[in-house]
Amino acid sequence: SGIGLVEGDRLNVVAVHDINEHNIQDYFLDHGVSIETGVAGRVVRTGEPAFIKDVSSSPDYLPTSPAVQYEICVPIRANGQTIGILNVETPSSKPLGSSDFDILTTIAAHLGMAFERSGAYEAEHRSRTAFEAIQRVAAIVSSTLDPDEALRRIVETLANVFGYPFVSISLIDGDRLDSA
Question: Helix 147-162 and helix 98-143: axis angle, to 10°?
């Protein structure tokens, strides 16, 4: 089983569990997979889940172990886009059924919602940080009569609030810029 996230034209596997220890985990974590190949690639390209009951009959299957017979691969969608996949492969001794497909589809949907919330949280955090910087700059401007001191404090505030390693303010002086 594994989870892969789309980055450009690659499906980068971020988590994989290989109970047979065929070094699949190391290979996929190190190399990822092109979205142009495999069942997972097809799921990424089409956004449609795949439930394969005999992988030997699938032209898209990339062999990971000779023991694998079943594969379920479902898209993880966020903000209307396929951003990754949830994939499970099992041997004939552990057949996958429709309830497994339903469970994996539900889990993938919840993962997608979590990614959406995470993105919304990050955007809200950036907005809050920008608002905080504006408030601090306004407080500096209203509390400092010395322009040089105000500019120095504004630069320090922007560097601290946003974590920038370098901040400068330049003032126009005729036809040149002077750094404050």
Answer: 170
